[in-house]
Amino acid sequence: MDALSLHAYARVLLRVGVNIQQGQSLRLTGEPAHREFMLIVAEEAYRAGARAVKFELRDSRHTRIRADHLDARYVEHVPGYLEKELQTFLDEDWALLRLDGEEEPGIFDQADKERLAAMQRAESRARHFFSAQVIANKLTWCIAPCPTPRWAEKVLGVPCPDPAKAVDALWDILAPILRLDRADPVAAWMEHSARLQERSRALNALRLDRLHIVGPGTDLEIGLMPLSRFTGGSAVSAKGITFIPNLPTEEVFTTPDFRRAEGKVRCTRPVEVLGVPLEGVSFEFAGGAVTDFTADRGADALARFLDIDAQARRIGEVALVAADSPVSRSGRTFHSILFDENAACHFALGGGCPDAVEGGEAMSEDQLKEIGCNISLVHTDFMIGSPEVSVFGLTAEGARREIIRKGDFVVSRRAFRSARRRGSWARPSRR
Fold first, then answer.
1. Is residue 160 one of the residues assigned to a domain?
2. Bond prior to 248 in cis (omega within 30° of 0)
3. Residues 254 and 394 in one domain
4. 63, 201: one domain
5. Euclidean distance between the first and the last CA atom of the chain, given in angstroms as a whole number
6. Cystine design at 34: which of 30, 78, 210, 216 (Cβ 3.0–4.6 Å)?
7. How far apart are CA 138 and CA 27, in angstroms?
8. Is the pLDDT score of 430 beyond 70?
9. CA torsion angle for 191, 197, 200, 204 (degrees, to 10)?
10. Does 184 reside within a domain?
């Protein structure tokens, strides 16, 4: 991608993603390979009136060195400055932009998985107060991709001797997914967000009590709370600023009742936990919790993930995605949850989303847990959708409504208008 296009993409991230405001500060997180693009984002941020831009580099090579050589006494040590820094971001209303794209895929394959899990658990605990505020949209935030040579090779599936050509090839794949091929990408994202919000309203109008997901190896019911609300597209911060947390995004999602999940489910795409790729994963649920699982690859890492805390075995999010989404149409596995979750319906084990609960953003964690919103240190998506998977919605009275038929949405604007005329319309969330 040429410099002019990179500047245009940076403006999309700043205007559509975090929607940075005059005088606002920006925390910009990425890997060392993202540095040149981070400089472009910083330039555009200052042009947009940013007060300050803070670079935060996440270096996976350093993390691997730490996991390999750190004295065992300090594996769970978290520096004291971290909490103070995170509190400053909250107090000063910073915008948070994180670039996604591995610089060193597979770097943790041979690492000590117990150490990695302990390190992640300690940092998750230290960051929990901040993460809870972010997920409740107290700040504007966005996660968006930035290709790297090694990530490009992994997606393309072939060796690429020329790193620059590999990155350009990945940009060519990402451009239509990110709507960068449109005459006005910002307007295109606003229109897409409006469509996702309308789909959410159509689902909320049905006043569903639970979802029934069926397909090869899958027969799973996930219960919803009376206050569960489908949402998608843009969000609204505590200060009333509209932003889009994930680019790309193709999902409408809700927070289910973590106490209500029964049945079995087979994952349809690979995912990564604790730095370890998982493949061929299946789960069984009873009483809302994972009671058994299998995995063709990465079973040990999945077992450690499920034991990170008491609620890691319970569902915090369920998301519906059309099987013909732009990510799915690309025909690629991106080995990035940011993309792969937008290729298929999925659920997340771990923490729920307060903004998908009516009034949830104003509730304490104890209040959220009391009504059925899961509270956990982790949140990881597992893809379960495909052109062979269908989704049905059931009301408390037992009425059954088809939502997705063999991967395609059948809930429409007409369904929304019809439900509203019948008086069964539920007020949508703020997204």
1. no
2. yes
3. yes
4. no
5. 32
6. 30
7. 15
8. no
9. -140
10. no
pLDDT tens per residue across span 413-427: 555 455 445 544 333
Select from 159, 138, 134, 139 the least CA-distant residue to 149: 159
Instruction: Name the amino acid, one letter, at 361.
Output: E
Which residue's entry shows tokens 């379960």? 384
Tell me: the pLDDT tens digits for 16-39? 999 999 999 999 999 999 999 999
Strands 95-100 and 141-145: parallel
Cα-flanking dihedrals φ and ψ of residue 167, to 5°?
-65, -45
Q: How many domains are there within the chain?
A: 2
Bridge partners, residue 264, by sequence: 219, 284
Examine the domain organization and report whether 208 and 69 are in the same domain. no
**What pLDDT score was predicted for residue 423?**
45
Please indicate, yes or no, whether residues 395 and 270 belong to a single structural domain of this protein.
yes
CB-based contact 329:335 (threshold 8 Å): no
Q: Which two tokens stand for residue 121?
A: 């658990």
Q: Compute how many other C-beta atoms are within 10 angstroms of the C-beta atom of residue 397.
A: 7
Residues of the domain holding 407: 191-234+248-421
Q: Give a yes or no: residue 349 inside a domain.
A: yes
